[in-house]
Amino acid sequence: MAGKPRPPLVLRAIYGLQSVALRILFIAVRRLPLDQASAIGGWLGRHFGPMLPRTRIARLNLKRAFPEKSSTEIDAIIRGMWDNIGRFALEYPHLDQFCGIDGGDRISVVGMEYVDAAREDGAAGIFFSGHLANWELMGLCAAARGVPVNLIYRAPNNPYLAWLYDLRRSGEAEMLPKGSEGARRALFLLRRGAHLGLLVDQKMNDGIPVPFFGRDAMTAPALAQLALRYGCPVFAVRTERLGGAHFRITVLPPLTFQDTGDRRADEARAMREVNALLEAWIRERPEQWLWIHRRWPD
């Protein structure tokens, strides 16, 4: 089978330089204590993030999502969002320090009994969350508890950055790229009783319109499609930053989506439930969500 076509020579050179630069930065950040790295990332994010062009997208999204908030309140959320993004970026090289069986003193976990039950029941299951706080911790904590979570992800445009994604791998789980190949592998794993992990808060142009903050957002229905097809439980996982590099992860009781036989209606109903849950979390801590997505149609 033919692979993806190789990028042109000049683009390969640019990609290579990007990879080398990130490796140097990665090594430098690894030498810092985790708390110091997180603090530096937060400082850089707060001071320089609001100047970036992506802030315009965040501001527009926030004004539409929270029409009752003043410009001062919106600015505070934007600074907090960039603080979180900066912290996340410089915590990323330290992800292995979050891999203890219960997160050590950095992560408090609520609802771990549901993860343990998923480990013991011998059945497939799906974990989902959104781009909240440090969203990479979901799979790592589950794997530390004996539940490898096979993550579905968007492959980087720069193929030389694939090494960065190895840190996201939870235990013996696989990284499944979005697309037909990854979908086939996901189906195979579910049939074998494995667990998948999805971040379901990004725009998907060929998704289905589902309400989110009072407006339809194009939403990937894959979570509902897989859960309904295999009748497997769905675990909602919320990650909150409590301060610095300290977090709380909450695993909710498993959801079971209603199956009436009308597949389109069932999928839409399930994704409305998912989006409503994500929206509630974001409303509580709006500064910890990634508002720079083009989540809604203009």
In short:
It contains ten helices and nine strands. It has a seven-stranded mixed sheet, with helices on both faces. The protein has a two-stranded antiparallel ribbon with strand order 6-7.
Q: Would you spell out the secondary-structure blueprint of this structure?
A:
Elements: H1 9-30, H2 34-48, H3 54-65, H4 71-91, E1 107-110, H5 112-120, E2 125-129, H6 137-144, E3 149-153, H7 162-165, E4 175-177, H8 180-191, E5 195-199, E6 203-212, E7 215-219, H9 222-230, E8 234-243, E9 246-251, H10 263-284
Parallel strand pairs: 1-9, 2-5, 2-8, 3-4, 3-5
Antiparallel strand pairs: 6-7, 8-9
Helix pairs in contact: 2-4, 3-4, 9-10
Describe it.
- Helices cover 45% and strands 18% of the residues.
- The chain has helices spanning 9-30, 34-48, 54-65, 71-91, 112-120, 137-144, 162-165, 180-191, 222-230, 263-284, and strands spanning 107-110, 125-129, 149-153, 175-177, 195-199, 203-212, 215-219, 234-243, 246-251.
- The strands form two sheets. Strands 1-9-8-2-5-3-4 form a seven-stranded mixed β-sheet, sandwiched between helices. Strands 6-7 form a two-stranded antiparallel ribbon.
- Strand 3, helix 7 and strand 4 (175-177) form a beta-alpha-beta unit.
- Helix 2 (34-48) packs antiparallel against helix 4, helix 3 packs across helix 4 (71-91) and helix 9 packs across helix 10.
- It starts with 8 loop residues before the first helix and ends in a 14-residue tail after the last helix.
- The mean pLDDT is 91.
